[in-house]
Amino acid sequence: xxxxxxxxxxxxxxxxxxxxxxxxxxxxxxxxxxxxxxxxxxxxxxxxxxxxxxxxxxxxxxxxxxxxxxxxxxxxxxxxxxxxxxxxxxxxxxxxxxxxxxxxxxxxxxxxxxxxxxxxxxxxxxxxxxxxxxxxxxxxxxxxxxxxxxxxxxxxxxxxxxxxxxxxxxxxxxxxxxxxxxxxxxxxxxxxxxxxxxxxxxxxxxxxxxxxxxxxxxxxxxxxxxxxxxxxxxxxxxxxxxxxxxxxxxxxxxxxxxxxxxxxxxxxxxxxxxxxxxxxxxxxxxxxxxxxxxxxxxxxxxxxxxxxxxxxxxxxxxxxxxxxxxxxxxxxxxxxxxxxxxxxxxxxxxxxxxxxxxxxxxxxxxxxxxxxxxxxxxxxxxxxxxxxxxxxxxxxxxxxxxxxxxxxxxxxxxxxxxxxxxxxxxxxxxxxxxxxxxxxxxxxxxxxxxxxxxxxxxxxxxxxxxxxxxxxxxxxxxxxxxxxxxxxxxxxxxxxxxxxxxxxxxxxxxxxxxxxxxxxxxxxxxxxxxxxxxxxxxxxxxxxxxxxxxxxxxxxxxxxxxxxxxxxxxxx
Length: 572
Fold this sequence. Notes:
The chain is built from 23 helices and 16 strands. By secondary structure, it is of the alpha/beta class. It has an eight-stranded mixed beta sheet with strand order 1-8-7-3-4-5-6-2. An eight-stranded parallel β-barrel has the order 9-10-11-12-13-14-15-16, surrounded by five helices. A hairpin with a 4-residue loop joins strand 7 and strand 8 (228-231). It is globular, with a radius of gyration of 26 Å.
């Protein structure tokens, strides 16, 4: 029987395919005695062999889709399977204690995991705990006869159905086969939603119950434009959505014609449309979608994708590649933003009650100046190859900015003294803490630019964790209180002759864009795949009319919903 579910539209597009449930199976078991130990060790070996074969397949696919370096994690997993100290210990426990393979595997793996986790002086060995945990889960699944989801092995068209998707889950998705995904939790700012827009596949998040409402193999329609999910659709439903998919494809073809055009409003005002990136590999999408700049280069991925702190030369090459690749167009590079929900296995951080309010981003950089100075030197060297804008994240006070800039200028002086060429660069801050937004008029006297990070600014202003589904209703980008902060930041920048941008997800939001045009935002940075759609929208906007609209949104509207209605009623 056909049923329709509703969620948050997180990535545009329409897809029709069968469901693939990416749900972790029940791996619970009971400890039991066995009479035939040979039969039990054979059962274990069979599970090991199946795991090895599976990992080899996953590794081959990962090498092709993600690259050889990323695929090497699976080599580590296969090494554990081949390690006689690990598998031999499990077999020995079966033989000596006459227990079932599940129990023996669990006890031995727990011992190994604790041993590796205790190696606090050796980050590399500490990481092996996670590898043992993953390998154990795979062997256990084969012992119990249950299927462990392997998104990298998908070889037919499917729609992923999951409670949530981790960045590593999303990284394994092959857009040739994965036509869309839907999740129980999450919002438009979740990592999985951002990845979906980068992959250009439809996505709906925050449905609450999709993993309970959809069964493996059921036909599903996903409309990422509206947030509608149709389960077991009728032939008429399929025909309707196939036509919608064709209309959307035709619309995208129209947007593509704008790739090489400047971003101009109906009354001839230019705005800079930029792209957010995580690695140099993302440049292809930036250029294919006609971005006029990189508005946010998240450098933390350099740290997260490495087994140790990246060297100055490693970072220099990455930054240089991006800056050169943009052919003179501006590149905003955000210094390391680790902490909160982003952790490094080789850089232990203190356990905190509220990590998003704790030791993170610029606070780590100013404390661990050895790490910070290395990054700044790499950036300064790369500045000689194009148009660089350096941005400090999570700035709360003028003292923090002054200290960070002072360290930057110290490193510039040292490089110049050593005969190293340093180009021109701008220095700005990310406005994501309300204290900085309120004091923007003073910051504007000392910075070269602002870039507003709406995801955290909203989270901190509303005192609501954006990853907590129980308070997700408080993620309100159009709330007059948020818009008043944004207005103050933009006006403060302009008063001092500086520019203001936005690099949060709101910059590409079709409801927010008319308001931001009206408020006079200079630069809009978003997922690369949103650029042409926003460029098309801006061609229809008159800045004088949008200024009147924004003034109403800030002074007359009382709620987030008031402003959604205001824009929908006035922008067609």
